[in-house]
């Protein structure tokens, strides 16, 4: 006989007050610990092993910096902003994460999916403000001014309607929207950290994230096709952007720029070949080949000296100003316009960063603090938003490169930031003649990993059909509707799948494994022996209001007996029998004799006297679940069939006690509840 332990009741009010008093107290030691927790660099930097770590950190920092520059310029196309803002973003994100991050390896900065989500909001707001989304305007003069827009594209537009009491051009308004969106996303992340809402990431399963990334990759690919072939089509907005864009592409395919098509074909061949060779021989290479940088340098030189913009009308990046633009506070009224859009951006940014941090922390045997990661990513968005930057996140591809080139700490992030700073201060104007089709090629080739997920669909389907369905639904919604709605659809559909699986779980009748005290599913295993006069029913899910009816239907179907119908039928025959007996007729209404009627009242299908319910898979019961068990206990008792519960966990037992299943004094509990199926079966056999 097992006896439950008596747990001492904890006064939660006192515990909460104690924690509150402790958190409100301030001592020098506590202040020091708070600063060290908030800025983890203060803990690990004094212990930095210079001789052991410096070479790997410098090498990985230089390589990532070299990769960052072309990617930053390319991803500016996704965000609908000028390349200078992408460089700002890459610089500030690396510095802030160095100070506040707890992961030693992740590379935080510009990320394609985040850039796409920012770009969609920027485009929508530009369209609502009356700007033309055509991005082939003449380049700015390079003097650092952000208001040198052409008349046809963004004539000085009075934006007092949205809270900006000054005339502002298209570029100025676009970065204003991006910084307001970024600031709000950072605020959400910091608030989530303060209130410890990191559990939100649990609702983004691997299938949802993979489907979202693949669907967004298709959207990114579609948005870059017009740059690949050099056609001018309007930037589609709203739901169904992917389909509308492809329709416009095929309508205008005859206007393709031959120079851009040839350049794109050459760049894609070179980039893909280099990537494939790099993947094949990565164990022999000390660091990855800087293919993107080589392609950009060569393409810029060819474009400049071949005058591809002037002769063939090939679209180029234009002037990128050097130095830093004076900081500016994001507009409050713009924040209100994009507050809702910032929420999915904040969640996606945080989830990608934390998941990558945890993955590499596990790989290299150290720990991270998810809550601090939320603060780090939040401030990587809040602070840079004052310096004309947009939202950031950790990126898998660059993180893999960091680890493969010997990264040991976030010192490598500082080195990468210095490389970006060098470009910002001196080298940015050199990219004036860089063709946009080259940038589009870099973006498309960087999507290889996400697009390769299509090859994994058969293996994923073989492993788990429901997860595959979640992946397909999320991917289709992200690509065909919009990225934000796709993410929401994926989360909701994933949760619905869980609910449906608990609503219609597996049910089985169990048989005994010969010469053992173990029982398993009759339909799944051979050579199981049935227990005479005993039915053993297993229900593989929590029993609650949503699956109550399925529980009863399955029980009645597998035992081949509905106690309610059987009881009603017996009452009906008993009533008819009494009526005929009063009349003195020894033959009943159906023409049978009394003895025959008595035999008929004991149905042949009732071939058991005890029902054992295996509760090992029932994790909890709600009020409906308790009432359901009480109902079957009563119904089967009317047919002289005892109901025995086996393998209940403590929370289920407590629910049954509170619901009055065992009676007021629990006197019959030992005859109704058993800690193993075999004990219940032995008890049922001993019953007369």
From TrEMBL:
Q: Which residues form the STAS domain?
A: 524-684
The protein's matches in SUPFAM superfamilies, at most eight in alphabetical order, are given as: SpoIIaa-like (SSF52091)
TM ranges are 53-77, 106-122, 173-195, 207-229, 249-273, 334-354, 375-397, 409-427, 471-500
One Gene Ontology cellular component annotation? apical plasma membrane
Q: What is the topology of this protein in the membrane according to its UniProt annotation?
A: Multi-pass membrane protein
According to UniProt, the reaction catalysed is: sulfate(out) + 2 chloride(in) = sulfate(in) + 2 chloride(out); nitrate(in) + chloride(out) = nitrate(out) + chloride(in); iodide(in) + chloride(out) = iodide(out) + chloride(in); oxalate(out) + 2 chloride(in) = oxalate(in) + 2 chloride(out)
Where in or outside the cell it occurs: the entry states: Apical cell membrane
Under PROSITE patterns, the record lists: SLC26A (PS01130), STAS (PS50801)
The name of this protein is: Sulfate transporter
